[in-house]
Structures are given as C-alpha cells and as structure tokens.
Design brief:
A: 113 residues; 7-stranded mixed sheet; 4-stranded antiparallel sheet; B: 116 residues; 6-stranded mixed sheet; 0% helix
Chain lengths: 113, 116
Amino acid sequence: AQTIHQWPVAEIKAVGSPLSLGCTIKGKSSPNLYWYWQATGGTLQQLFYSITVGQVESVVQLNLSASRPKDDQFILSTEKLLLSHSGFYLCAWSTRDNAETLYFGSGTRLTVL
Amino acid sequence: AQKVTQTQTSISVVEKTTVTMDCVYETRDSSYFLFWYKQTASGEIVFLIRQDSYKKENATVGHYSLNFQKPKSSIGLIITATQIEDSAVYFCAMREDGTNTGKLTFGDGTVLTVKP
C-alpha cells in the first residue's frame, strides 16, 4: 500500500525567515506529485505539480518554489516568508494516468508571525 | 474556466439518518471527473468517491453514493446511516480530462455535523 508522509506537522515561523516543507511517498514508483495550499477556513488551491524527477511546474505565483530531487520526494520552500504564506500545505500524489484520483498527505500547518 | 459551487455552508443531522450535500460545477469539457473528499478535524483530506462524466451509473462506495445529474451539472453526495464520526468538512472537486497537471478545482466545502 502507498503511504505519503509530510514533514513537519506544524511550523511557526517569523516573517522573512526561510521555509522548507517536505513530502515522501512510499510504495509507488514514478508518481505524479502535487502541492496544494489551504487558507484557514478556505478551499484548496494547487501550487505546483511534478510528473517526473527534476521537473516542477508552477501553477500560481506565491513567492514559493518547489523541487523534486528524488522520485519519491517533493520539497516546498521559500527564502523569505510572508504573512500571507500562513495556512495548511498538503502534498498529494496520483498515478500518471491523468484521470486518476489524488491522494493527500496529512498536511503541514504553517503559521507566519 | 472551471468552477465548483457548494451552496450549503453547513448541515446538521441526527445520527443514523441520511444526508445529501449539493454540488454544481461548470466546465466546457465533454470529459471530466468529479470527486468528493472529506477533511477531518485534524486537517487530513480523505478521498471518498468519484464519478467519471462518461459513466451513467451513479457511483457507490460503502455508505457513500452519488446523485449525478449531468444535464444539471450536479453531483450530490449522499451519506446513509450517518455516524458521529462522519462529522467533517466535505469538499466537492472536479478535474478536467486531457491534462496531466493534477489540478483539482474545489468547492468551498460543506460542514457536516452529526449529532447523537
């Protein structure tokens, strides 16, 4: 069975500080990987997607970047956090068939002060 | 552009009853996929059920079923024999065919409270 693990579970960071969030999927080779963001009380919005190692596409510009250094790993980062970066970050995976269901990790709750 | 609308902000029901949550969508594509997810109190988002637009039969998984009315662009979620643990936020989402971006367009969610 596939498992998806996100780290850290929660972060409290200062404005202007750097950030790195991670996601690892086990039990599935060559998955498509995605980052989604949810504002508190809001809906989910896609940030990035990656269909292969080393390739990441940005969907919205939020002063964030993403990388896929390994087949099973997806990283979300920024050098300078903004207050607007606060929220819930979710990593998700699917198979490479574009009709497939997305499965989400447990998320990282980020508070920027 | 795609749009997903959940008009019910919140619903409260007594356990063991049936609840229906509404969702309407807008798309120009002839082929698309519709999903329902549940977000628990911890924030975890759990996939529940999906409907492929080309399928006429309504999907059913456990005590979840869908009421797919394609001419009305509507995909309602029906939960039978509700349990306290069904209390959560329910999101309807749509994915268009022909892309490999994994982009789901989500509705704003419906908060379900199941009371004893």
